[in-house]
Amino acid sequence: MGSIVLKQVTKSFGTTKVIPPLDLEINDGEFVVFVGPSGCGKSTLLRLIAGLEDVSSGVIEIDGQDATSTPPAKRRLAMVFQSYALYPHMSVRRNIAFPLRMAGMDKAEQDRKVEAAAKVLNLTDYLERRPGQLSGGQRQRVAIGRAIVREPEAFLFDEPLSNLDAALRVGMRLEISELHERLKTTMIYVTHDQVEAMTMADKIVVLRAGYIEQVGSPLDLYRSPRNLFVAGFIGSPR
Ligand code: ADP
Ligand code: MG
User: Which residue CA neighbors atom 24 of ligand 1 most closely?
Assistant: First the structure.
């Protein structure tokens, strides 16, 4: 459950090769952070894993099964978008239930799952509000709630905190780490923020121009950066 393996995956847009052949293994339950400068291919890689983009070549395996041509809805991975992806005219309840409603689940079952997710995320008292009546952090939790109800095998976060202010970011970072502790579900978290990478990750994948510079634990990368790019990016003393 929840393992993701990329074998010789490439992605080109037209004649521009954004991801050269790339191999990566993500184990079940790991919190993996993709970090690297803007434009290095973090979002593209996440979208390939989610199935929102097709690979140009190579294989993606989820739970040991070839999922390269599995459509996104069948991959059992939940992409968490920034909080502004919420529907402003719908209540929190309806926002969180959205994927369940789309899947045709009956109303009682939807409510049960929404209420369980709301409990985990401390949103129980806010279910009948609209997103506009919530704080930035609460809106971000609603976006996460919409992912949780699908009971995915992995959560994929693409810079989920980038439109929150600095103080709120610290709090949400802790909340997402705690959520990982509780759910023990695989999480892939994309950021260009070194502090987020160092504090949240079990495993950091440092990307540069579409290829992997280094993979390792925060401590590994800090102590033994492979080159100056990694050292500079991670903030190692080397
Ligand atoms: P990051 O998320 O690390 O900032 P992206 O994955 O968004 O980087 O983009 C990586 C590269 O791929 C960039 O040069 C970007 O311009 C290009 N790119 C991303 N999506 C597309 C697309 N749909 N069409 C053409 N080029 C794209
Ligand atoms: Mg991006």
Answer: 13
Model's pTM, two decimal places? Answer: 0.92
ipTM: 0.98
> How remote is the CA of residue 36 from the centroid of ligand 2, in Å?
10
Q: For residue range 80-91, what is the model confidence (pLDDT) as tens digits? A: 877 678 999 999
Distance 46 CA to ligand 2 centre (A): 9
Q: Which atom of ligand 1 has the smallest separation from the CA of 210?
A: 10
Residues with beta carbon inside 6 Å of ligand 1? 13, 18, 36, 38-44
pLDDT at 100 over 90: yes
Q: Which helix (H) or strand (E) holds 188?
A: strand 186-191
